[in-house]
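Q: Is it fine to ask for two folds in a single conversation?
A: Yes, each is treated on its own. Send the first.
Q: Here.
A: Result:
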Amino acid sequence: MSSSPVTAAIRPEVLALSAYHVPDADGFLKLDAMENPYSLPAELQQALSQHLAAVPMNRYPAPAYTVLKNHIRAQFNVPEDWPVVLGNGSDELISMLAVACAKPAAKILAPVPGFVMYAMSAKLAGMEFVGVPLTPDFQLDRDAMLSAIRQHRPAIIYLAYPNNPTGALFDDAVMHDIISASPESIVVVDEAYQPFAQRTWMDQIPRYPQLVVMRTVSKLGLAGIRLGYMTGSPELMTEFEKVRPPYNINVLTEAAACFVLQHAQVLEEQAAELRAQRTILSSALENMAGVQVYPSAANFLLIRVAQAEQVFGKLLQHRILVKNVGKMHPLLENCLRVTVSTREENTRFLAAFAASISS
């Protein structure tokens, strides 16, 4: 009996995967994706629409993206002489890193629970993923990480700062130990939530030639345009440029980013408001009986509550969508992740959440 094109041609690792699922949020208060709830002011929206109307969509993007990279350097404090590699969101950067490093038997290592795309990129590139459990308080297990590095000699190590889905900032001293112990690995510090943490490893790149700092503009308020960037030593960035798809940043994304980054103060003010709302939301949740709230340096909170599966379902009945992370890893049992939003949306969530845990 002959096999089908699917079973004959598709790699078994891909056949075994499930597609990345994004739930339908139509009609819901969407607090599951760490999006900035604020739009641009009306006058900026109008100016942006006029700017985008003049973009020559019949032409390919300028291949070097020089103007966009200069805006990124200027607004995000990337030194002028450091190379910048762009991606269609940080997801594409993660994929590019895996493609560049997928030697036979190469491995990717990261603490778990962590961002799911680290493991996904490894599988898609035919690499092995090594997950090292965090401590019960969601910090790096220094000894376990160093032991795994010695045993597996990973090509790539990911350290999310702060981590998703926990929101924790890892201990800097432990991170230094891990980077120092990995001179032959590429150590990627993923700073997707840097606007809310206000701390960075960018200034450590000259100290560690293996260090790469990766960021995205998604959490800052530009999730829809899909733009990520990374920087590190010229030697590393030169190699990653070779696997970057040509014209991977489209002209509308490029034009929108260049325009908005000239008005970055608006985004910074929104991030400051979300940091303030994070404190208010965390305090309100901590005052609820039976709710454990974990410290967060991101724009979301990880909370633990009894029977989280039922609470998640009751929130859905209230038309509120959060992320049920309880099945992602044993350390996350009975945990939910909720995006920090506006004062009004946070108030609506708190009322629904209080009703959901008491009924």
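Q: Second one now.
A: Result:
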Amino acid sequence: MVLSKLFNDPILTCFHIHPCMPTSPNYVLRLYIFPLGKDDSQGRETAIFFIRSREKSPVERIRDELKKKSKKSTVSNYSLTSSERMLIETVEKATAQHNVNNVTRTKAYLDFYLRHPEIHWAFLGHMVSRNGGYNMTDLKGEFLTKLLSKKDRNSFFAFLERGNWLIFQDVYPQFLLYEESIKQNKPLFYLLPSLHVSSFIETVWNHLWRGEDSYTLCIALVINEQNYLEKRVVQNPVYQKEVLNKFEFIIQDLLSFNHILFPYGSNQLRGQTLHQFKLLHERILLGKRLYSVLFHDQERLSQTVSWAKKHPHTGSRKDYWPHIFNNVNEGIPGLTFPLRLKACKLRKGARKFYSPNLEHAWKNVRQPEAEQGDWYDDWRVVEYLEDDHVCMDGEIESDYCKTLERLEIAALAKKTINFFE
């Protein structure tokens, strides 16, 4: 006998144990027993029925908590104990020690991931940071030295280095507090405001501690870091004028030179391409696609991690394609060579393309302190946390090969890309 008419949906009511009980990972069943009256022989009869109530998803729980936060609550008035102050100082010192250049940052991400593989962003950050280093050394490599002026290349490097530095000094303290939380067996994320970390990501770390999934934290960190960069770098008037609005930057975009590559196996590549760097929305969506490429195929993930461990990051593209790139310049100044590349292979007898190590390309830069302020002001940003369940294959090798060929032609001819479009 079903009594569902007596109650509002979604309720399923059954006498005793009914085979039609609903099952779902987002629902819980609650057992209720109600007296119906007296029987002349058996005493009081009872009705047993189940009410199905929907459990909130991780995203909904995070959304609810963020709605309760106000801008005032993002500033911590918490009085630190002496041990907490010492911990903060230790975290800041360790972060500064690793935040010297792109190579040291990239290594720190990988080392942390190998200690805590549940923190997926650490490996995603490692692989993206590798690409940041490649972009830096490209400015002193085979192609862009011919296409960009020295002044423009210096501006591009300053732009890339500032963004790389800012992200590390924001995210690495979060990792160290997580690690210390494990050691002390209690969450220490209430200390994040003292490290000038956004209240948005503080909320997500607390949910992770309660058992939420690695995906949610990883995408939340993507959201956090891209918003963190938005005003400090992307909207910075200096970088807007000297980099983002430059014709040369548009050339790189048209050339699809914003490939983010994930090597694996034997000289194999997967990845994605970003065209609209200036758009925050596009950068966040790129982060979600990169996560899919990197983590949805466990066999390929294992191969990529293995590759990263076997190939320490140097900044030279020789790291992943030594058959095409060399960190030693094989060219002779003043001589012009015919086209060397065809279908991702060097023509017979052709020299490799020059791609220097970072330490030989750029000196370490002492960065000014990060601009203060919490970017978070709208709970609707949590909508990015929803899993789109899109599995990205990440096929990129063919496009990347064509990009290298176009760049070689452009550098050789010293003409704009419009000539070849």
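Q: Anything structural to flag on that second result?
A: Two points. The longest helix spans residues 150-184. The beta strands are 27-39, 43-54, 259-264, 268-273, 325-326, 341-342, 345-346, 353-354.
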